[in-house]
Design a protein that fits this description.
With 431 residues, the chain is of the alpha/beta class. Strands 4-3-2-1-5-7-10 form a 7-stranded parallel sheet, sandwiched between helices. Strands 12-11-17-22-26-27 form a 6-stranded mixed sheet, with helices on both faces. The protein has a 3-stranded parallel sheet with strand order 8-16-14, with no helix packed on it.
Length: 431
């Protein structure tokens, strides 16, 4: 028997046994998004009565995040890099914290011991013949946290697809929990007529041979619907989902024209359904790498015709983008938006696109606003912004002065708000 196989057997424990090694006051980093290890989290939460002030560090939590539920605050305190649906209430009630950080820079926090990692809980594939496991659908900050942690606890799951790129040897794992269970899935969002109109407007800006970064949600997915006539598109994106699979199977996405990593889908994490996970499993054209590589603006900028497509909640008439707050309420976070906006600005013939519906609250509020809401943070600055797209068209803000920007943005606002925006802009001396 290979030496690693002996060590593997020696390190197998139950979930309950594994989490007994977590102590009060520990900082525990959990693998990201759909790659989080459900069995390990469930076992940890079941120990709540025995623990005090365990810090749970995570970006997007796709599971129920029971550690952030009411009544858990003495045992666990969640520290979020991205406020998601299952953790938002805890943050709003001050039972959890939010740490602003560009996605690309999260690994630095762990590697440089700005946030020293006591324990990491991850989910991996089964080992190959050399004793290496793939990180599967979550490499992003998960690999850096694993390399920095004092204690590594891994759920090994046969449902986890094996992806190219980052991997970990069993020698680096302290405790192994064998637990096969279906991965968390992100079902495709509902795409309405507004999203389709936005998607069509964005697709007009995509050239043949472009390399794409796509955010999460209905708008990026809607864009994919209108790219079927394009040729030789590529993917270098922090993540991708099921819509990309359909275009790859149709021969639209080939990755042949990519300047960097030609022939390869490059991402740092994946979110989707089993269709996506089956597509990437042992697929030699798919590689997942750490986020401090995939989202590095220098790396992004090496691609010719790099196009980033992200969404926002609000844009003011100067071109400032708010993609994370509703008023003073932290709704999400920056994610990789600014990484890609800045990266595409370095790309030869690159374009960064911020796409959003023109209104919110059932048409009662204009998302194109004279000023951002009081208390809202600026996600992408007016100095970085390039294209803003709504269902009414695209505004190219690069090289435009403030008056020209205001005019361009008002022209893609909902028609019902254009007069009031003009009047307000004139009152404030913008027009």
């Amino acid at each position: 028997m290979n030496n690693w196989k002996v060590k593997y057997l020696e390190r197998i424990v139950t979930p309950e046994q594994a989490v007994m090694h977590i102590k009060s006051g520990d900082r525990v980093v959990i693998g990201h998004a759909c790659g989080e290890p459900p069995s390990l989290i469930e076992a940890l939460v079941s120990r709540a009565a025995d623990l005090i002030s365990v810090e749970i560090v995570h970006m997007v939590a796709m599971g129920p995040a029971k550690y952030a539920q009411l009544g858990m605050e003495k045992s666990f305190r969640h520290n979020a890099f991205f406020v998601g649906a299952s953790t938002r209430k805890a943050f709003e009630e001050m039972r959890a914290d939010f740490t602003p950080c560009f996605f690309s820079e999260i690994p630095r926090l762990f590697k440089n011991k700005i946030l020293p990692v006591d324990v990491v809980l991850i989910q991996l594939t089964q080992p190959d013949e050399q004793g290496y496991c793939s990180f599967g659908i979550s490499v992003d900050y998960t690999q850096a946290a694993t390399e920095s942690a004092k204690l590594v606890i891994a759920q090994v799951n046969s449902y986890m697809p094996r992806t190219g790129g980052a991997k970990i040897h069993l020698d680096e794992i302290d405790f192994i929990v064998e637990k096969d269970e279906p991965l968390i899935e992100l079902n495709p969002p509902k795409i309405g007529e507004i999203e389709k109109a936005i998607g069509e407007n964005v697709a007009k800006l995509v050239q043949d041979g472009a390399t794409l970064q796509l955010g999460i949600g209905a708008i990026p997915d809607a864009v994919l619907l209108f790219l079927k006539e394009k040729k030789d598109l590529g993917i270098h994106s922090e993540m991708f989902s099921d819509g990309v699979v359909a275009l790859a199977e149709a021969g639209v996405i080939t990755n042949r024209k990519k300047t960097l990593n030609p022939g390869k889908f490059i991402a740092t994490f994946l979110m989707g359904t089993r269709k996506l996970y089956d597509f990437v499993d042992n697929n030699p054209t798919v590689e997942l790498h750490p986020v401090d590589y995939v989202n590095d603006p220098y790396v992004i900028g090496q691609h010719e015709k790099m196009i980033s497509i992200n969404s926002a909640l609000q844009v003011d008439l100067m071109g400032q983008v708010n993609a994370e707050m509703i008023g003073s309420r932290q709704f999400s976070a920056v994610g990789g938006q600014v990484d890609y906006v800045r990266g595409t600005s370095r790309s030869l013939n690159g374009k960064s696109i911020i796409a959003l519906p023109s209104t919110a609250a059932g048409g009662k509020i204009s998302r194109i606003a004279c000023e951002l809401d009081q208390g809202a943070a600026v996600t992408t600055s007016r100095y970085d912004v390039h294209y803003i797209v709504t269902e009414y068209g695209a505004a190219n803000l690069r090289g435009k002065n403030l008056r020209q920007r205001a005019e361009a943005l008002i022209s893609i606002a909902h028609p019902g708000f254009r007069v009031s925006l003009i009047n307000e802009a004139q009152e404030k001396g913008i027009l």
